């Protein structure tokens, strides 16, 4: 074999080996960062966050939640406030543009949708031109509804500023309103400095507090509609001359990722905050809110879908009124029959409709314990107390005890706040029909005895009268006999 042939032979061998190597790499997954190779700074940070503990995994008999790369995350059921998944949920982190959900909530609560919002020089110039914006100029204006689309769909920072000035008169004044409203919603690890979420060291919140804000946000029909808009067409008007479309950056809303039941949400990003995301979803009558904070794209969307899967696969929402029957005394006509003198009846105290609990799939309502609070802060008119339900000491929902004329379940009213785990001794039930029957029976017995008493004494009076009359007759006979005897004596003396 000459040199040229040997050269070609070795080239063939090398080419074949390279081809086999490529095929093997394509056929078998290879770790992008094996343990013996250094991770990038981003990869190392993600791995460290992945190893952070999931707090709800420490709850007894609670479904085990997935590991995700977000530094903080929460999955909350909206109606009950039940926390299904918790990871570092009270840590103070930067919210970035998810701040705008509270901005829009306050705007809807304070303003009509047709109000005109003017754009001041400060509103436009105080935000960076390379950030999220709509290109609004000082002196232009939009309706409040258009502004809300600009905030939620375009995430426009200058629009958030303009709304803040419109509502409160100044940016600082609106920040004060934000902090007040957040406190009203129960936020304890939150402090807002601006309406748009641009980074300031003293502008922070937590996953739990963001979930509370989102809970109020998704209760508003207008905000749900606006926040679930994939794209919005801004048309020229007297207030602004441009014609343009803005696409929602939330990939579960704009269609880049698909997930059934999404009802809206908000993205957020700054270098300091990382990727943040708030999303609402509703399936089978159960509305879940997911918040993930501080991770890298696109993991925030993937983790959100993972948490929604966890929630809908492992939990079920249950109506309290329909399921809490432990406190009804069965086979006791005096306390409860369900009928009154007019037909269908009810107790005067009952469990209000509209209360829910969220149970793990393997749990039953009978597994729950309950506590009663007569001094709950949110009691309304005709509400007597609040019942809190627990699954192995984990709060999973609550209901209200009310004055009611509806045929609903009656409830135990213990004198203490100890958990109710069995059939109660002190129960208040009122059945009008049975109560009247019992009162009538008692009255009948009393009347019967009065009649007997009257008959008895009437007979005695009759006997006494007969005896008196007999005695009178005897007395009369004796007097007659005495008179006759006296007459006979007088006759004998005359003789």
What's the CATH class of the largest domain, please?
Alpha Beta
Strand portion, in percent?
A: 15-25%
> Approximately how much helix is present in the residues?
25-40%
Order of helices and strands: HHEEHEHEHHHHHEEHEEEHEHEEEEEEEH
**CATH superfamily placement of the largest domain:** DD-peptidase/beta-lactamase superfamily
Terminus-to-terminus distance: 205 Å
Task: Provide the residue-averaged pLDDT.
Answer: 84
Integer tally of domains: 2
DSSP strand count: 17
User: Helix- and strand-based class?
Assistant: alpha+beta
| Structural Rg | 42 Å
CATH topology of the largest domain: Beta-lactamase
Number of helical elements:
13
Indicate the multimeric state: single chain
Name given to the CATH architecture of the largest domain: 3-Layer(aba) Sandwich
Provide the descriptors you would attach to this structure in a database record.
495 residues; alpha+beta; Beta-lactamase; 2 domains; six-stranded antiparallel sheet; five-stranded antiparallel sheet; disordered N terminus
What does this structure look like?
The chain is α+β, with helices and mostly antiparallel strands. It has two domains: 261 residues, DD-peptidase/beta-lactamase superfamily (Beta-lactamase); 108 residues, no CATH class. Helix content is 39%, strand content 19%. It has 13 helices and 17 strands. Strands 10, 13, 14, 15, 16 and 17 form a six-stranded antiparallel beta sheet that branches. A five-stranded antiparallel beta sheet has the order 2-1-9-8-7, with helices on both faces. It has a two-stranded antiparallel ribbon with strand order 3-4. The N terminus is likely disordered.
